[in-house]
Amino acid sequence: MVRLLCRLVSVGAVVVFDLGDPDTFETAKTWVKEVKEFAGEQVRIVIAANKADLPTHAVDDGTARRFAKSVKGELFYTSAKTGEGVDGMFSWLAKGYTRVHIL
After folding, report:
1. CA distance 22 to 7
2. Fewest Cβ atoms closer than 10 Å to its Cβ: which of 9, 13, 35, 58?
3. In what order do the strands lie in the sheet with 74-77?
4. Which of 11, 74, 1 is nearest to 40 (CA)?
C-alpha cells in the first residue's frame, strides 16, 4: 500500500540517517533506490543527516555530500532533538512541489 501511494502522489521524499550510526547511512542508500523505483526518477530527494547536534559523527561530511549528489538529492543536517535544519529541509522540498504544480 505504501508503495502504491508513493507511485500516486510522490514528488518528494525525505530519507533520514543517523550521523552516529554508519549502518543507517548504508540503509538510506536502499531507501533512495526504493523511492526512485516506486515514485520515479523525477522525485525530489532530501537526505537528512540526523543528530547533527551531537559532537561527533561516524559519517563524515564528504561522504554524505557525495551520496546526496550521486542521487541528485539535497543534503540537510538536522536534529530531531533541537529542530536544527528541519524547517530549511521542508522549505526546500515544498519549493520544488510548488514549482511542479504551478508550471
Report:
1. 29
2. 9
3. 12-18, 44-50, 74-77
4. 11
Q: Which fold does the domain 14-102 belong to in CATH?
A: Rossmann fold (3.40.50)
- Measure the CA–CA gap between 60 and 19, rounded to whole angstroms: 8
* Tens of pLDDT, residues 49-71: 999 999 999 999 999 999 999 99
Residue-wise pLDDT tens digits, 34-51: 988 888 888 889 999 999
Are the C-beta atoms of 85 and 19 separated by less than 8 Å? no
Smallest CA-to-CA distance from 36 within 66, 64, 6 is with: 6
Contact 36, 4 (CB under 8 A): no
Which CB contacts under 8 angstroms, 24+ apart, belong to 24-28?
A: 25/59, 25/63, 25/64, 25/67, 28/67
User: pTM for this structure?
Assistant: 0.83
Cα separation, 37 vs 39, in Å, equals 6
